[in-house]
């Protein structure tokens, strides 16, 4: 059986008397991206630090490619790439010196460093001290550092903060390349619309607990949010079609996501309607439905 790249089983974490994580389990396989979502203080960064082996869970187990995460941190035998939430490097160094330093630690060739500097659009500033870099330039450098050694596991804590739209798109392109090469990716982010089309699964955390885990389709099915279909002369067609009438609301067909395949089949085979517009709940809609309207406070223990 395939060993998951990341496997957390029943992990709890206490900081003194505060329970930051409460019986959390999930797996990420090679070549998969999991988005780690949740309110401020939900426990996302703590989970990433546990995978890195920087924090040992109070109870439960954390494994990376079958090894205890903490033991791997000490041996560094598994190649992990990490972008911390607040990326900061010694600001008297130049961008090139930073990548050169991490490259030397990880045995990366100078050619790879040169290529990444150019790809991330930092060539013109590579010899300047970091104190002259903008926030987005530092973030680009941080992402380049994280993927430098083409890791087997890539952990990105809010990677698109400060990135312009093109740089964000470029980053997701790079992530997809790494996935193709078998990298397992965990991305903690609040930018749901950006991550939606790139994830395989999403883990939604609330107050240290797992609120939901699944593919977008699974989360959509589990939600009570409706999908909808619209097409020209829909109202006319519905008048003479008892099957469609049961879904007709506010000028469109509205239904649970699990009914989509059946309705589409009906439209194509029974009504000869081939051109329609389907709208499904977005990840952001599902997230808001799960989290509710009021602000979650990490201090409220569930
Ligand atoms: N070293 C620490 N000591 C005490 N409490 C901590 C420590 N680190 C984190 N916490 C608490 O644990 C909870 C989870 O923090 P964490 O940083 O994992 O949240 P997060 O989901 O990454 O939040 P955000 O989206 O705001 O970055 C928070 O209530 C935080 O205050």
SSE map:
Blueprint: E1 6-15, E2 18-28, E3 33-38, H1 44-52, E4 59-64, E5 67-68, H2 69-75, E6 80-83, H3 95-106, H4 110-119, H5 135-147, E7 153-157, H6 165-180, E8 184-188, H7 192-195, E9 201-206, E10 209-214, H8 216-222, E11 226-230, H9 234-239, H10 242-245, E12 248-249, E13 252-256, H11 260-270, E14 277-279, H12 283-291
Parallel strand pairs: 3-8, 3-9, 6-7, 7-8
Antiparallel strand pairs: 1-2, 1-4, 4-5, 9-10, 11-13, 11-14, 12-13
Helix pairs in contact: 3-4, 3-5
Bound molecules: adenosine-5'-triphosphate (ATP).
Adenosine-5'-triphosphate binds next to strand 2 and helix 1.
Q: What can you see in these coordinates?
A:
There is one protein chain. The two termini are 36 Å apart. The chain is built from twelve helices and 14 strands. Strand 1 (6-15) and strand 2 (18-28) form a beta hairpin. With 302 residues, it is of the alpha/beta class. The strands form three sheets. A six-stranded mixed sheet has the order 6-7-8-3-9-10, sandwiched between helices. It has a four-stranded antiparallel sheet with strand order 2-1-4-5. The mean pLDDT is 91. 36% of the residues lie in helices and 25% in strands. Helix 3 (95-106) packs across helix 4. The protein binds adenosine-5'-triphosphate. Residues 15, 18, 20, 38, 40-46, 85, 298 line the site of adenosine-5'-triphosphate. This is ABC transporter ATP-binding protein. It holds the Pfam family ABC_tran. It comes from Shewanella fidelis. One of its GO terms (molecular function) is ATP binding. InterPro entries: AAA+_ATPase, ABC_transporter-like_ATP-bd, ABC_transporter-like_CS, ABC_Transporter_VariousFunc, P-loop_NTPase.
């Amino acid at each position: 059986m395939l060993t998951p790249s990341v496997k957390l089983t029943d992990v709890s974490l206490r900081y003194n008397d505060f329970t930051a994580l409460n019986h959390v389990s999930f797996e990420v396989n090679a070549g998969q991206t999991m988005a780690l979502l949740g309110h401020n203080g939900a426990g996302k960064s703590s989970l990433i630090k546990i995978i890195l082996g920087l924090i040992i869970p109070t109870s439960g187990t954390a494994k990376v490619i079958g090894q205890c995460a903490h033991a791997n941190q000490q041996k560094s035998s598994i190649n992990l790439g990490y972008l911390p939430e607040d990326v900061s490097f010694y600001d008297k160094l130049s961008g090139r010196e930073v990548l050169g330093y991490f490259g030397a630690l990880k045995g990366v060739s100078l050619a790879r460093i040169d290529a990444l500097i150019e790809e991330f659009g930092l060539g013109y500033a590579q010899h300047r001290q970091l104190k002259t870099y903008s926030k987005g330039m530092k973030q680009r450098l941080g992402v380049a550092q994280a993927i430098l050694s083409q890791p087997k596991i890539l952990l990105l804590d809010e990677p698109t903060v400060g990135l312009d739209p093109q740089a964000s798109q470029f980053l997701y392109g790079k992530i997809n390349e790494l996935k193709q090469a078998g990298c397992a990716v965990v991305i903690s982010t609040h930018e749901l619309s950006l991550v939606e089309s790139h994830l395989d699964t999403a883990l939604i955390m609330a107050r240290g607990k797992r609120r939901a885990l699944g593919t977008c389709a699974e989360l959509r099915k589990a939600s009570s949010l409706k999908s909808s279909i619209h097409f020209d002369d829909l109202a006319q067609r519905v008048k003479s079609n008892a099957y469609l009438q049961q879904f007709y609301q506010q000028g469109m067909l509205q239904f649970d996501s699990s009914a989509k395949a059946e309705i589409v089949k009906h439209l194509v085979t029974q009504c000869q309607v081939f051109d329609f517009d389907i709208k499904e709940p977005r990840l952001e809609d599902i997230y808001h439905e799960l989290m509710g309207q009021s602000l979650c406070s990490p201090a409220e223990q569930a």
